[in-house]
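Follow-up to my post from last week.
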Amino acid sequence: MALRHAVLAALLDGELSGYQLAKAFDVGVANFWYAQPQQLYAELTRLEKEGLVAGREVVQESRPNKRLFHVTDAGLAELETFTAAASKPAFVRDDLLVKVQAADRVDTAALVAQLTERAQVAQAKIDLFGSLLSRLRGDRTEEDFLRHGDRIGPYLTCLRGVAFEQENRDWCVRTIAVLEERRQSHVRP
Amino acid sequence: MALRHAVLAALLDGELSGYQLAKAFDVGVANFWYAQPQQLYAELTRLEKEGLVAGREVVQESRPNKRLFHVTDAGLAELETFTAAASKPAFVRDDLLVKVQAADRVDTAALVAQLTERAQVAQAKIDLFGSLLSRLRGDRTEEDFLRHGDRIGPYLTCLRGVAFEQENRDWCVRTIAVLEERRQSHVRP
DNA sequence: AATGAGTACTCATGTTGATGACTAGGGTTG
DNA sequence: CAACCCTAGTCATCAACATGAGTACTCATT
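User reply:
Got it. Predicted complex:
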């Protein structure tokens, strides 16, 4: 039941519509969780019913009306409780890792192609997170921002996103090199 | 539907019983996936029904009999198909990140405690993976092993496990430092 | 002599997350 | 001017993952 808390945490940045929220979660810019639009709409409905968020209708012309949500005091209390409770350990669960685990017994050409693509995706995310970080910190240095900024949560999670994707990319590159070298030196039966 | 493939990939290391498999997946030594024992037993049953794995009964005295499973040719073909198909991108999904995202608005003392614990767990995993790596490579150097070893899949995934946990630990340490410093300098309202 | 831990599983149920299909108006572009 | 994309959602359904409880026998500990 962490999606609800992820939504609450995301809404701390200010009022958002379900659609805006979905954009953030979908692209994975929300580097601390991931969810489909439909899940978010459903969760917002539940959260509103329980009084943890409140929405207000914003009438728009030339496009559909939307509902902007913000976290209520009860929602903040819920986040507080959640934070105090033990976190369940985070596990890696990655299709690509499964494939690499089986690398000795399957065709490596397809695998190398996928590793290459993954490395590119990772690089794109590094760039994206990098620009997000510099936007968050403005003209301050990282040190200064982290000491005196007033909303460092997103910055810290983004830092982890960058580190994760760098590790991801480097590992892909390394693995590609290993697999390619083996393909050349000894042709598999 | 990647659990089935994770099981297949794990069974490439040799015959395993459901229980042994469960041990590997449960502790997270299986650094490429994670699952509960019950899921694995269920999956093994399905896989056997579909002919992707085959089991043989091993009669034991002084402890319950067990069934050892191995991957069939059909199972290997299935792994091949899986490897050729596109991988879905891997997302970070971590309770702790959600909490850090909300760090500006909740009690940081509890958060710091959890980050500390997470850092310790990460360090323990680094050590575990480290010894696993050296066991896998035996007396060879990493370079040599990756070039000429005959089962490098587990080694490569383990390398990623180490990198992931190191990043994890470092980020926790950094985040703790940031939060602690802010707690001292300006008391939150 | 009872308690607990380890091996080796099974069954049932519940919670989460993922997917596809659909509505509906406005703007853009070929 | 038709086709397509963007905003802003809803509804229904399915697959995947997680959890609790239970069986049964053995060995070591207290």
